[in-house]
Amino acid sequence: MHNLTDLLRAAATAALPPGAFLRRDRGDALFITNAPRIDPRTDRAALLREAGFTCVGSGGLLRLWPAGIWLTRLEAATPDPPDDLCRSLIRFRGISPDGASLKLFALGLRCLDGGEGATRFDRLLRQRAAQCLRENRATLPPPADDPSAGVPMRRPPEATRDTGDFITPNPPGGGLYACALLDHELEVQSR
């Protein structure tokens, strides 16, 4: 999984002009770069978005977060959950990640990339998972090994009456399975 941080770094570096730095961000982003200062005529944010990053610019710097495509790739590459937390959060696989999950994923990647905070990441992941599981109780299926797996799901109040389709297509919690996979890798590294 350390390979994932290398892949992200390589993808971002390929979109940067010569002489620009790419550093691990000290805030909640994954990376920070001075590319706009080095080459102000090129829309580096657009190039970085094409490379799979969400960018926010300020003061000639760009802060980068991995976009949802990186979480989707990790989830697809790991169809078998390696531990209990991953098994409980696999129900979120395939749901588009929201901003909170993207920031949490960036924190996990910073921890994998040699940063501190694995315990904090684990705590934040579990808090977010509990919140999303409560909010999605009626709309997400239980894990396959859950004894209630055969029990029909309750329809949420926002479900339409005529077709049974849900009005909210992206319930909160997308990306949590990918974050749980990072958490597992951090635990393996700490042994």
Give the gist of this structure.
The protein is 46% helix and 9% strand. The chain has 191 residues and is α+β, with helices and mostly antiparallel strands.
Model description:
The protein has helices spanning 2-14, 35-38, 44-50, 68-77, 84-89, 99-112, 118-135, 176-190, and strands at residues 22-24, 31-33, 53-58, 61-66. It has 191 residues and is an alpha+beta fold. The protein has two domains: 2-66; 69-143 and 165-190, no CATH class. A four-stranded antiparallel sheet has the order 1-2-4-3. The longest helix has 18 residues, at 118-135.
Secondary-structure class: alpha+beta
Distance between the termini: 15 Å
Low-confidence stretches: 147-168
Measured by DSSP, the beta-strand proportion falls in: 5-15%
SS summary, helix count: 8
Principal-axis shape equals globular
Mean pLDDT: 85
**Largest β sheet strand count, sense and barrel closure:** 4 strands, antiparallel
Radius of gyration: 18 Å
Total count of domains: 2
Q: Could you estimate the helical fraction of the residues in percent?
A: 40-55%
User: H/E element string?
Assistant: HEEHHEEHHHHH
In spatial order, strands of the major sheet run 1-2-4-3
Q: How many β-strands, per DSSP? A: 4
Question: What distinguishing features does this structure have?
Answer:
single chain; 191 residues; alpha+beta; 2 domains; four-stranded antiparallel sheet; 8 helices; 46% helix; globular
List the helices and strands and how they pair.
Blueprint: H1 2-14, E1 22-24, E2 31-33, H2 35-38, H3 44-50, E3 53-58, E4 61-66, H4 68-77, H5 84-89, H6 99-112, H7 118-135, H8 176-190
Antiparallel strand pairs: 1-2, 2-4, 3-4
Helix pairs in contact: 4-8, 6-7, 6-8, 7-8
